Each structure stands twice: as C-alpha cells, then as structure tokens.
Amino acid sequence: MTTEVRVPTLGESVTEATVATWFKKPGDTVSVDEMLCELETDKVTVEVPSPVAGKLADIVAQEGETVGVDALLANIAEAGEAGPETPEERPSEKAEKAAEAPKSGGKSVDVMVPTLGESVSEATVSTWFKKVGDSVAQDEMLCELETDKVSVEVPSPAAGVLSEIVAPEGTTVDASAKLAVIGDSAGAAASSEEAPAKEETASKGGKDVEDAPSAKKAMAEAGISRDQVSGSGRDGRVMKEDVAKAVAAAASAPAPAATAPAPRAPVSADDASREERVKMTRLRQTIARRLKDAQNAAAILTTYNEVDMTETMALRKEYKELFEKKHGVKLGFMSFFTKACCHALKEVPEVNAEIDGTDIVYKNFVHMGIAAGTPQGLVVPVIRDADQMSFAEIEKAIGEKGKRARDGKLSMAEMQGGTFTISNGGVYGSLMSSPILNPPQSGILGMHKIQDRPMVVNGEIKIRPMMYLALSYDHRIVDGKGAVTFLVRVKEALEDPRRLLMDL
C-alpha cells in the first residue's frame, strides 16, 4: 500500500508553486512529519512533511517543476512494503541493473538545473568542480551556473559517482535541462573500467582533469587557453601558479602576429601583444543590454540639487555610539537617505510608479533598491517595505544584503520587485553624475561625495559639508514639477532630520 504526497494548500490567491528542493531521494526511509521537500511560491516557501512512515517509493514532481494545489508530488511505500528493498537485497538488484545498462552504473539520479528565479529562462555552466568518475556526497557542490543576474551553485541530489556530465562548461542550458547523472556506488566499478581511457585522454590534454577554479579564473583574465598551460598538480591539474608561469613565458617570447585577434582598426604588432581580450560574463552582458534598453525605452531626464549635510552629520555623530550599542549596527547615511526618499515618494507617488502598456501602476509601498558594486558587476538588492522600517532595520538590511552581494550569495528574489533605487557613487569619490534608470522603475537617486565648500548662510560665508544630489526620472510619467518637488523634499528632510520624525 502506498500513500500519496500532494501539494498542500498554499494560501489565499496562490494557485501554483515550484518544487525547489527534495531532501529525500527514492528508496530513503522517512518518518511521519519528516521533511520531504520544499516548495517555492511567489510569496512564501512551503515545507512538505511526510504523511506516514515508510520509504519514498518515487518522486513524481522533480526539482524545478511547477505544480498546482493538490498535485501529486511523490508516493510513500508504507513500512510493511519496504521489505523487498532491504539493504541486503540492493547489491544484487543493482548488479542486475548494471548488467542490463552498464553505462548507467546501476540506479542513477539526474542532476537538473535548479530553480533560477522569476523571468530567468537560461544559464551558462561556468565551472564543474567534479569530473566523471568522482565520488560525490549528497549536497556536495557539483558545478556553478551563471545567469544574467546571479551565480547559482548546484549541489548533488544524492551520494554516488558522477557517471556523466551532460552539459560541459560553457554550455547554455534552459531552466529544465539535465546537467549530469549521478550513479550509485555500484557504478564505481563501471567508472573504474573507463578510467584508463580517461587517463589517456587527460594525458593528451583532455578535459577530464578538473583544473583549480582559481587557475580557470586566472586563465580567463590573462586571455590564454588551457593547452597553453602545463599543469603541475595531480594528474596534470593546472594550478594558479602554473598560469602565472605561462603568462610570464608568453610575455618574454615575441608574440606571433598571426595569433593576435583581427583588430577592428590598424594595430601595431607591439600594441597587439599588450592587449587583453576577455569574454564578457553573462551578468556584464545583461547589465549592458538593460542599460541600453533603459535609454531606448524611457525618456530619461536628470534634475540636480545640493544638500547641506550639517544637521544630518551632527545627529549621526551625537547618537551613533548609543545607536550601535542598542541595535548592534552602525548608523550610516543610507538610512537617512532611504527614510528621506520614502517620505518624498508619498508626496510624489509618480516617481514610485511604473508604466505597463498604456497604464500607470502606482505602488502604495516602497521596495527600495540599493545599488551595490561587486567584483562580478553592479547588482541592486531590494529592501522590501522600506517605508515601514525603522532606521535600525534599514541599516541591518543594507548591511546584510551588501555582504551577500559581495559574496555572490544574493538570490533572485532579493533583486526583484524594486520600486525606486538609490545609487551611492560618493563611496568611490564621485562628485557629480547622472544615474541611469533601473527599468521598469521611474526614478533613481544618485548620492555623491560630501565635500566642504564655502556657502552663504544668513549673509555670511560659511564652510559647509555639501553633497550634490541627482534624480534621474522617466519623463513619460514624471513631470519636471514632480521631479523637482521630490528632490526638494529629500533636501529638506536631510537638512532638518527632525522633519522625518514629525512627518513634515
């Protein structure tokens, strides 16, 4: 007798979900209420427990599949029926399967592309950390995928042997593609039979030896191919120092003119030898495309103002130690700017709106995007409902998301749904710039460097810490009056932070 595992009620107005992760595999023993899998909806993550004790007979809905409410996810064989699959009998069963299908090495599990996120339909396989024949543990990292927004790590769904790589490095795969096949331990024998051939291939410069990730990065940065580097690691594995030696050797030898890429304009042989050509990452390609699309689609205009930061700096200096002691986070300027923008967006809601066809969609909430520069490129994590948050909550959210952005750990959901963006070029020393819109948003505020300048205050020249502000906006729905009013309200709030407390 088997028991069906079905999609639970997902909540009001939620009709479907995506199978995000299976924590069990067919054949695993499960107890009542033990976690089987996790579903992801557009609002929440739902955990699915086992309704009975027994053994997971089969998985009907694989990871990445979209399922409706009450859809069948899996079947549980109750404990009494689990006998035929006892550990003592499994070796013979696996041996039979291995004899019938020696290529699969027995029972196998497909490694599929994980859920990539809303609006992301494909990814590129950037790095395999394992090679065919390697033993892997469950949840051990197999490879890394690169989408146009984030890098996605792919863990092994089961313990066993990597029997096949379906999508090698550089392959572009869709959201439902198969990446590899994991065979069980019985498949190790079959893999070992193929080992001599693979070793021979590796000795000829094949791709079966996994080079160090740091070496791959160094080769990409140096613009040299794998066959130009001699590996000193185990089985000819290329290490980072091997790349450095190859680059040094190439620099000391004259570069043949024939190996230089065809120039777009006349280039001397000496100049060609000093050029470097590196393929754009998918993230950088997407940044370039989206920025150009923003220029083509929106009527972007920028208005400027300046703000005297004296009062904000004084308030921050007065309370920063007490603030950090109580809340465990430093009081920065970003929370003041976030609060000031949320305040101004209430008065000028069109800056917080977007165009959808011939409609204008006004947002009665503020999901604040905070642009952050990372080694991989510019990303914009989103702080949801920032207008409902305190200074401490905003600072904690900015700190946490900023760290995740730098570590490349941001999820797709964390970078979607923003209604307005703040970009702080001042941290890099920018004194003035015109930020570009983050579609489909209609406004973005550019912050800049705080610099002491002589200002006339009450008829006297005073030295004041001044900052230029820039608001870029979509002139299709935001008029000049609205844009200027928004920027003036931000200026007023920062020059007299008490206005924020009294909602003035």
TrEMBL record:
Keywords, sorted A to Z: Acyltransferase, Lipoyl, Transferase, Tricarboxylic acid cycle
InterPro entries the record matches: 2-oxoacid_dehydrogenase, 2-oxoacid_DH_actylTfrase, Biotin_lipoyl, CAT-like_dom_sf, E3-bd_dom_sf, PSBD, Single_hybrid_motif, SucB
Segments forming domain Lipoyl-binding: 2-77, 108-183
GO molecular function, a single term: dihydrolipoyllysine-residue succinyltransferase activity
Enzyme class, first EC level, given as a word: transferase
GO cellular component term of the entry, any: cytosol
Biased composition range(s): Basic and acidic residues: 87-100, 195-214
Pathway noted in the entry: Amino-acid degradation; L-lysine degradation via saccharopine pathway; glutaryl-CoA from L-lysine: step 6/6
Biased segments, Low complexity type: 251-269
Domain Peripheral subunit-binding (PSBD): 210-247
Catalytic activity field: N(6)-[(R)-dihydrolipoyl]-L-lysyl-[protein] + succinyl-CoA = N(6)-[(R)-S(8)-succinyldihydrolipoyl]-L-lysyl-[protein] + CoA
Cofactors named for this entry: (R)-lipoate
Disordered: annotated segments: 80-110, 187-236, 251-277
GO biological process, one term: tricarboxylic acid cycle
EC code: 2.3.1.61
Pfam families, A to Z: 2-oxoacid_dh, Biotin_lipoyl, E3_binding
PROSITE patterns found in the cross-reference section: BIOTINYL_LIPOYL, PSBD
Subunit architecture: Forms a 24-polypeptide structural core with octahedral symmetry. Part of the 2-oxoglutarate dehydrogenase (OGDH) complex composed of E1 (2-oxoglutarate dehydrogenase), E2 (dihydrolipoamide succinyltransferase) and E3 (dihydrolipoamide dehydrogenase); the complex contains multiple copies of the three enzymatic components (E1, E2 and E3).
Function description: E2 component of the 2-oxoglutarate dehydrogenase (OGDH) complex which catalyzes the second step in the conversion of 2-oxoglutarate to succinyl-CoA and CO(2).
Family per similarity comment: Belongs to the 2-oxoacid dehydrogenase family.
Identification of the protein by name: Dihydrolipoyllysine-residue succinyltransferase component of 2-oxoglutarate dehydrogenase complex
Organism field: Primorskyibacter flagellatus
